[in-house]
């Protein structure tokens, strides 16, 4: 993929981020009053990191799903702008896939479908479609991080288009094949889907492999910057999960802080690696 084509994708990502933020802002007047009524209707609480640590000591709050959804979209918007201007003239193959990871967080906007369904009495099929889009985005983000590590390990840059197509097809198959309960959601307003524990385990394993691959690349390429990039990958995954799985006031701020810290590690160190190339 040429530098101009990649930068075009970055600009398109910025536009997509703006559109999702606009949708959230435009519908907020309709959906925000419904959140207190939706929380008691949740089939179960989310299984985020903070709840794993403190149990049920921290109760769920009705507006946290809206806050985390909005924060994820703003993160994608700011990160895409940062990547575009920071890497506009820098040919770093890994940054394309990290940008796709950041952009994947815009699909969190699909969680507004639960309150919209209540407001406008929409068919259940809309919830299922939105949930498949949400799963596609979350799976796609993790696979994009893994693809970035393959380029650090020495994969040829000209195969970016092929890798992107493979990731998209694989993610689409997974998102379509997962059974979804169209009538039940958790405390983050994410629809409940089958094999969630298995997918969470596979995601974690894939991120660990990605982190280790960056560590190995640091040795094979003689650049210690990849160690920090690997740490950054692990941080963005933990931060993303804390942010998206939050249903209490405790989790969003540390989750976003960890996500931003990991993003800074990845972008700043990648820029150093390719600065003189």
Keywords for this entry:
two-stranded antiparallel ribbon, 11 helices, mainly alpha, 277 residues
Please characterize this protein's 3D structure.
The protein has 11 helices and 2 strands. Strands 1-2 form a two-stranded antiparallel ribbon. The chain is mainly alpha-helical and 277 residues long. It has helices spanning 3-31, 35-38, 49-54, 64-87, 93-104, 113-120, 124-152, 160-177, 196-220, 225-244, 252-274; strands spanning 180-185, 191-193. α7 runs antiparallel to α10 (225-244) and α10 runs antiparallel to α11 (252-274).
What profile does the largest beta sheet have? 2 strands, antiparallel
Number of strands: 2
Order of helices and strands: HHHHHHHHEEHHH
Summed over residues and divided by their number, the pLDDT gives a mean of 91
Helix and strand layout, with pairings?
Elements: H1 3-31, H2 35-38, H3 49-54, H4 64-87, H5 93-104, H6 113-120, H7 124-152, H8 160-177, E1 180-185, E2 191-193, H9 196-220, H10 225-244, H11 252-274
Antiparallel strand pairs: 1-2
What's the short story on this structure?
This protein has 277 residues and is mainly alpha-helical.
């Amino acid at each position: 993929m040429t530098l101009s084509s990649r930068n075009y994708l970055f600009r398109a990502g910025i536009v997509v981020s703006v559109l999702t933020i606009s949708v959230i802002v435009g519908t907020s007047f309709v959906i925000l009053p419904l959140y207190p009524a939706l929380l008691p209707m949740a089939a179960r609480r989310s299984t985020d990191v903070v709840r794993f640590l403190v149990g049920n000591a921290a109760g769920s709050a009705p507006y946290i799903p809206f806050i985390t959804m909005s924060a994820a979209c703003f993160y994608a918007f700011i990160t895409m702008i940062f990547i575009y201007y920071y890497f506009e003239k820098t040919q770093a193959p890994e940054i394309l896939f990290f940008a796709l990871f950041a952009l994947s967080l815009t699909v969190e906007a699909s969680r507004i479908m639960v309150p919209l369904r209540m407001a406008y009495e929409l068919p259940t099929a809309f919830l299922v479609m939105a949930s498949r889009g949400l799963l596609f985005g979350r799976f796609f983000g993790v696979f994009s991080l893994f693809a970035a590590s393959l380029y650090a390990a020495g994969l040829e840059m000209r195969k970016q288009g092929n890798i992107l197509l493979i990731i998209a097809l694989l993610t689409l198959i997974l998102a379509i094949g997962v059974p979804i309960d169209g009538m039940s959601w958790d405390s983050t307003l994410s629809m409940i889907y089958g094999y969630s524990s298995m997918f969470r385990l596979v995601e974690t394993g894939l991120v660990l492999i990605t982190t280790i691959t960056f560590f190995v690349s640091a040795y094979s390429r003689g650049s210690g910057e990849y160690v920090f990039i690997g740490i950054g990958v692990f941080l963005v995954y933990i931060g993303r999960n804390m942010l998206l799985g939050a249903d209490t006031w405790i989790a969003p701020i540390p989750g976003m802080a960890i996500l931003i810290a990991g993003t800074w590690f990845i972008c700043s160190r990648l820029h150093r690696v390719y600065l003189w190339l």
